[in-house]
Amino acid sequence: LTAVSLPRVIMMVFGGVFADRFQKSRLLFWTNLGQAFLMLGVVLLHYADAYSVGTLLLISVVFGILDGMSYPALSSLLPSLVPASQLQRANSLFQGSLELMFVIGPFLAGLLLTQGGFGLSFGTAMILIFIAAVLVLPRLIRDPIPDTSVLSIRQVLRDLREGIRYVKETPVLRAGTLSIAIVNLFVMGPLIMSIPILVGAAKGSAADLSLIEGGLAVGTFVASVVVLFLRSIHRGRFVFRALFLTLGAFLLYTQVASIPLLAFTAAMSGFLLMLVYLPTVTILQERSDPDKIGRVMSIMALAASGLEPIAFAVLSLLVAIEIPIQFLLIAFAVIGVVCGLLLYRRSRDFRNIS
């Protein structure tokens, strides 16, 4: 898992540079094709009974690199294809389909493993990724082709520094990125990490664990659907209200002990968190220069998913030295509220976005 996630996080940053320099559909096609061939390699290794830890680690690293390359290209592709008036709906459909797959995917994988073992499961994954590569063929997408000059390492680092400086010096982009960072570092990361610990403390079963994790996935999916129908909202203020409500729902999550209430409060936290995430992503896409949007999306992706492992590591370390999990969760929530208040006070431009 580390071999997949660490390269993915690192390449999310550099992937934004490539997304700004090259045709996004072409990047998506090649990354999907590369992942499909990796899965083909896994299938062949399985039937040849030739697995080794080193081989699996190498495949995982390459898979993570390709995954990190694809996300900035995908998230920055939407604004070049969709009119600004439809961008929030497009983001909602994209994120909603993603969340739906988090609900369906584990069930489908378990069914395939039960019926046909690893060969059928990995083979199905390989076919689906090949289909994804076909669906993003550049001749089908027809997205703009930017400068395709060959990049040197020096140019990549220069573009990366320029992107970071651009986000840092643009108040709206900075506030939006920080709002996403707050909910992921202080809510989503601790919430995901705490679920098995709290289920164990409540002497729950694997079904109870699935119930809470399923509640979280359902909450995020429902929010994606709700955002589809939002009209005429003051988005800047809406995001901050949702941010504080998310932290409030997470505080409530820290105070309950029964499995049904844990599932309900986890679902509420996921629901409200997505109401922060989706409008913010749309605002960042709208307010970014077209030639820098890939880098902005990669920095946003780093704030969204790159900070969760930090929460995992911190919580794991503190739980290991026998600090009560409820105390740690409350501490994360309180720090999140303080950071949210500071961000609210210093983000007038973001608050005033309609």
What does this structure look like?
The chain has 14 helices and no strands. The mean pLDDT is 82. The chain has helices at residues 2-21, 24-47, 53-81, 87-135, 138-141, 153-169, 171-201, 206-228, 235-255, 259-287, 293-306, 308-320, 325-345, 348-351. The two termini are 40 Å apart. Helix 7 (171-201) packs antiparallel against helix 13 (325-345). By secondary structure, it is mainly alpha-helical.
Secondary structure layout plus pairing:
Elements: H1 2-21, H2 24-47, H3 53-81, H4 87-135, H5 138-141, H6 153-169, H7 171-201, H8 206-228, H9 235-255, H10 259-287, H11 293-306, H12 308-320, H13 325-345, H14 348-351
Mean pLDDT over the full residue set:
82
Distance between the termini: 40 Å
Helical residue percent? over 70%
* Total number of beta strands: 0
General form: globular
Helix and strand content put the structural class at mainly alpha
SSE arrangement, N to C: HHHHHHHHHHHHHH
Q: Mind telling me the C-alpha Rg? A: 21 Å
**How large is the count of helical segments?**
14
* Main sheet attributes: strand count, strand direction, barrel closure: none
Q: Hey, roughly how much beta strand do the residues contain?
A: under 5%
- Contiguous low-pLDDT stretches (5 residues minimum) are none
